[in-house]
Amino acid sequence: MAHTIAVALPKGGVGKTTTAVNLAASFAVEGQRTLLVDLDPIGSAGASLGFTASTVGAGLYEAFNFVTNFGAAIHHTELPLLDFVPCNVTSLQREDRILRLADNRTLLRNLLRPAAQPYDCVLLDCPPALRGLTTTALAAADAILLPVRPGLFSLDAVDKLFTYLDWMREVTNRPIGVEGILITMHEPRTRVSDITLRELAAKYRHHLLTTMIPRSTALGEASFYGKPAVLYEARSQGADAYRTLARELLSRRAEI
Amino acid sequence: MAHTIAVALPKGGVGKTTTAVNLAASFAVEGQRTLLVDLDPIGSAGASLGFTASTVGAGLYEAFNFVTNFGAAIHHTELPLLDFVPCNVTSLQREDRILRLADNRTLLRNLLRPAAQPYDCVLLDCPPALRGLTTTALAAADAILLPVRPGLFSLDAVDKLFTYLDWMREVTNRPIGVEGILITMHEPRTRVSDITLRELAAKYRHHLLTTMIPRSTALGEASFYGKPAVLYEARSQGADAYRTLARELLSRRAEI
Ligand SMILES: Nc1ncnc2c1ncn2[C@@H]1O[C@H](COP(=O)(O)OP(=O)(O)OP(=O)(O)O)[C@@H](O)[C@H]1O
Ligand SMILES: Nc1ncnc2c1ncn2[C@@H]1O[C@H](COP(=O)(O)OP(=O)(O)OP(=O)(O)O)[C@@H](O)[C@H]1O
Ligand SMILES: [Mg+2]
Ligand SMILES: [Mg+2]
Known about the structure:
Chain A is of the alpha/beta class.
């Protein structure tokens, strides 16, 4: 099965969606057949790829309800090697329903196992919580990628997620790995970034990725145009950093 | 009863907690007896005021469970006129339990009505969701304050929240007002800020507050020191902007 990465952190606005979308696009540009799945009912990943309710046929919602098979929820994108499953939770009733369905922790893994066959890599964009859809993502993932925006709140969230991971490995008996800790919205030589890096290096040096994503206006702008940064402004610092990240992750995996 | 403001938006990392904490501190500095309540199990508001599990006696969790009365959950802070109720959700079991208790939408309002007597203003820091604890905050609030970080995702979230507000006014038969839309992490003359402001002015001009909070490193740094920015670095742009905001809101209310 494809290498499956859950992009997760129990804290809001740290760059989970920006990372899931732009890393998926960068893997595709590197020649990896990539599937991105939006597990957040708010649907930011879909919005930043230009999907709207009217352009989505079926999504994760329909697949979880067994209204359609998972394949019918897979959409093409502007990048030939990047496919996308929108969340398609278009009402509060649907949101309540999908959260109840997600109580079946293995639901996503069972749907994904056959559907992921054609892909080299699957990326799962998670909401800012531990329970619910994030848990079903962790149960389906080979590894997790933690985006960390410098600041106190991200540090607490990293600790919390590692504790939760330990517990999940025990109850699911699955050896979920750590793809890495990715610093996002990095502002070099600021106290907030310095403190955050120092704390992470002290506790998680082994997981800290070399690539760091700088603050880059292109990343926020691109979502207004419904494109990943590599299509909107390929030469921006943001697009460039995510391509570098893709190469770092691919070479790390090649060494194992 | 005290004027009660819910700080809410169904999107992560837009500055809800930073706004709730620093606006509460600024109201206190302006002479308003202020109560800040942390409704997010992640507990960022408590962390940014220096509270830890060991320094918290009882919190919202205990009050919701009727283990203690609400008064026992109220803590003093470094500012004489600012008191604080921590969320005190210290485990996943507690998180599950408080979410079930919050299904009783009026729980917070009923606890707050007597407890809010001594205060001029109550601020409620909400998690990045609509359901659950945010709904109980909206049911207790006189008005909502929407922090908006420039970007596509915030715009969608504003629309979603206004729709939800309409629905809530119908089902609760309560005339919840809008304190205002507050631009946070504003970067003047960037495309993302310009587009966001233009969209908000087109649809919500009436609600758009004059004060905007600029990007200010002091706001992130202050939380590492467990203080609001007005105590950590009073002359920073961030602290200054929140004090200006407090005065704008107080004068708007005085005019009504
Ligand atoms: N490197 C960056 N430079 C500038 N802006 C960025 C960067 N990364 C993310 N952003 C912006 O920060 C905001 C939050 O990012 P994003 O939505 O990806 O975070 P998230 O963790 O997915 O949030 P949520 O918890 O709500 O799902 C977005 O407006 C995004 O455009
Ligand atoms: N004006 C600002 N300048 C610089 N940094 C800021 C500013 N406002 C907030 N931040 C930082 O942005 C991050 C997100 O802010 P905050 O936690 O207040 O958002 P939130 O909406 O409460 O997030 P969540 O949805 O997770 O509850 C924090 O690290 C905070 O320190
Ligand atoms: Mg997201
Ligand atoms: Mg918050």
